[in-house]
Amino acid sequence: MGDIVEVKTEPLRLGVLGAANISGKALYHPVSTNDRVDVVAIAARDRARAEAHAAQHGIAHVEDDYAAVLARDDIDAVFNPLAISLHHPWTLAALEAGKHVLCEKPFASNADQAVEMVAAADRTGLVLVEAFHWRYHPLAARIDELVDLIGGAELIEATFNAAIPESDEVRRSWELSGGALMDLGCYPVQWARFAAGREPIEVEARMCPDTAAGRELVDVETHIDLDFGDGCTGSVHTRMDAGFEAWLTVTGPRGWLRVVNPLAPHMGHSVEHDLGDGPVFETVDGLTTYQHQMEAFVAAVCDGESPPTGGQDSIDTMRIIDRAYISAGLPPRGT
Ligand SMILES: NC(=O)c1ccc[n+]([C@@H]2O[C@H](COP(=O)([O-])OP(=O)(O)OC[C@H]3O[C@@H](n4cnc5c(N)ncnc54)[C@H](OP(=O)(O)O)[C@@H]3O)[C@@H](O)[C@H]2O)c1
Fold this sequence. Notes:
- By secondary structure, the protein is an alpha/beta fold.
- The chain has 2 domains: about 10-130, 3-Layer(aba) Sandwich (Rossmann fold), CATH 3.40.50.720; about 140-285, Dihydrodipicolinate Reductase, domain 2 (2-Layer Sandwich).
- It has 10 helices and 14 strands.
- The strands form 2 sheets. An 8-stranded mixed sheet has the order 8-9-10-7-11-12-13-14, covered by helices on one side. A 6-stranded parallel sheet has the order 3-2-1-4-5-6, sandwiched between helices.
- Helix 5 runs antiparallel to helix 10 (about 310-325) and helix 8 crosses helix 10.
- The chain is globular and about 55 Å long.
- NADP nicotinamide-adenine-dinucleotide phosphate binds near residues 18, 82, 170 and 183.
């Protein structure tokens, strides 16, 4: 018998732009549990904050600015968790520098930017994934199966509310492409598209702008009615001035399902369904959504696998968001 030879491949080397709050959950923890990827460089507007992240998470190099991270030869890919208005310029810059990108949601400020980003990834042959982490947990595949079992979606209802502090600039500022629909509502929009399995033909929205705070262009609450044609309709609701609530209900000709917390199922969730024999409860095991997402990103870059988020999926989500703003009389972000 021949010797067993262990093939050791080098880990994917990531750079990170900014010292964002989300990086703990979406980047540092999943990387710490995955030996196929390392974070090797960081920059933030405030160097001291980048140094604090580097010290805490064992990142070898701190640069003075984002461009210096992109210029490093020892970086294969970049995590872009910047404020939403900065997703487009810094993702384009990373792709031009020859780096694959994992970009936070929502992908861009509007659909035109999303089209440009996807075109740049196609042209450069690099991987560009939108960090819609929920889609990578095994719960997403189970929802897909259950929608099939109920005979397809006829009525979809999806909600994500959270209490966003007044001081949260990223979510509450027009300049940074904030708004409840952008930061929170992008999830139920994507859940509805996922359950319908196609794009809506009609999008009608009502929004409450943050007039009390003088932010007339920023929605604090949004309701969207969607018509997917062929007898399938949906409604999406989001608020950034209410307690945490995240759920998806789908009704079809042969039954219904209700998922509580499709957003972050690793924090606790439930799936209730009735396929004609009465209600049944179940849960779906998995790692954190972010661990599954990081595994998929590494597999996309290193093994050539096709991720389900990014590309046309991101463009389609942003198109609904743009249409909703226009329908409610507000301008799409970044315009
Ligand atoms: N996947 C998830 O579960 C999840 C959860 C929360 C948020 N997110 C998304 O992740 C992204 C960041 O969210 P976060 O909560 O982590 O935000 P955050 O920490 O408040 O801000 C993210 C980064 O944006 C830059 N930034 C903030 N304010 C800025 C300003 N006024 N001008 C220029 N740059 C500014 C900062 O970069 P520097 O560090 O360089 O200053 C900051 O680190 C958003 O797209 C958000 O929707 C995703």
